Amino acid sequence: MDSASLRAMQAPYKDKYKDSPDTALITLKAQGSIDESKIACKVETGRALAVAGLHPATGGSGAEFCSGDMLLEALVACAGVTLKAVATALEIPVKAGVVKAEGDLDFRGTLGVAKDAPVGFREIRLSFDLDTDAPQDKIDSLIKLTERYCVIFQTLNKPPKLALNVSRV
Known about the structure:
Number of helices: 5
Largest sheet: 3 strands, antiparallel
């Protein structure tokens, strides 16, 4: 896809959202089913069923997906798509690339072993290995705009208000 095709594809949406800002607010949803027989949650992805379970560092078998890995994978997916869209829009040639995310967890927190150990990632690092002949100033702009427009990066960087609800069925 080239810049003109991308702009043409997105133009009706941009116009619609400028004219009617309320139409830009969309609620995305995810759902999973708690497994009765094992410590797992079956997450419906829309394409397949992903079964998440305990990480091996907390006693899991490793046969199921780890939700921490899934979070990093979501970041990689979003950052990769965002980078490619920005590169296309700005006509910055990217022949190929690899997007990597890694995060540090202290499992003492999640297992309740040490109250001073945080539950969750202490740090997440995102990196790009790009095959491009673009000058450094273009690459700098590409990364700056990727960071700015990547939904998952910005959500992690500026966490939204969270709410939790429980109902009995």
